[in-house]
Structures are given as C-alpha cells and as structure tokens.
C-alpha cells in the first residue's frame, strides 16, 4: 500500500514538472521580446512593400484627366462579358464587391493587377486579402491581358465620373 502511495506521488510530481517545462521555456527572458521584434520587422516590411499598387505586372499606369471614350467602350464590352456576373457598377454586392467608386478608393495599378492577377493579389496584397476575407470568394482569373485590363479600368473610371 505504501509503495502505491509513493509511486502515485512520484508520478504526479514528474508529470507536473513536464507540463510546466513548456511554459517555462516560453517565459525565458528575451524569447518573447525576440518574437515581438521579428513580428514588428515583418509588419514594417509588409507596410513598406504595400505601395497601394498591388502585386502583378502593372507598376505604372498613365491616366488622363479626360476619359478615353473608345477605350471605355472596349472596357464596357469586356466588363459585361467577364465581370458583370460577379460585380455590379453600383455599391451593391453580388458575389464580389460592388465597384462604384473603386477608381477613387484604389490606385489604377491596383485595379489592373487585381483584374490580371487575382490569385497572387489575394495571397500577398493586404487590401485584397481583406476583400477575400469579407466576401469569402476568390476572384476568378479571367485571363485578361494588360491592354484589356486597361480598357476595363477606363470603363470603371467613366462609371465613377458619371456618378
């Protein structure tokens, strides 16, 4: 009987010690501070990398003050064929967000990169990640080239100027 008591006491002491070992390791001086420093550096790197232009081939877009009507017309046709099943030109959500005012909220490069490169955008761009989390649907890659994305951008600019 006495042997069982000592065995039980020994077992409970040793198992308690093992459970606390992980907690003690996490409380080592400098470990928590080191993790915080690494997280801060990653956040700074992300902030520095996020210039509002998104992730993709488009780094610079020249848009004029006036709408290029011919380009916007091409963009309208492309939008109706590739985008309108998921997006409205109002602020109403369908599958994806409504696009009213998008050219006022986002840089032209971001819009074009989202059209051309939606998967990488939702993996790497903070704004696109938030949109994916909010709408819970990955934007489908419609295989739009840069020229066509520029036309869609011009159509969206025309829509926003008309509002």
Automatic annotation (TrEMBL):
Keyword Transferase in annotation: no
GO molecular function, a single term: heme binding
InterPro entries: Cyt_c-like_dom (IPR009056), Cyt_c-like_dom_sf (IPR036909)
Gene3D superfamilies: Cytochrome c-like domain
Region annotation Disordered: where it falls in the sequence: 16-57
Keywords: Heme, Iron, Metal-binding
Residues of the Cytochrome c domain: 70-160
Low complexity bias (residue ranges): 32-46
Protein known as: Cytochrome c
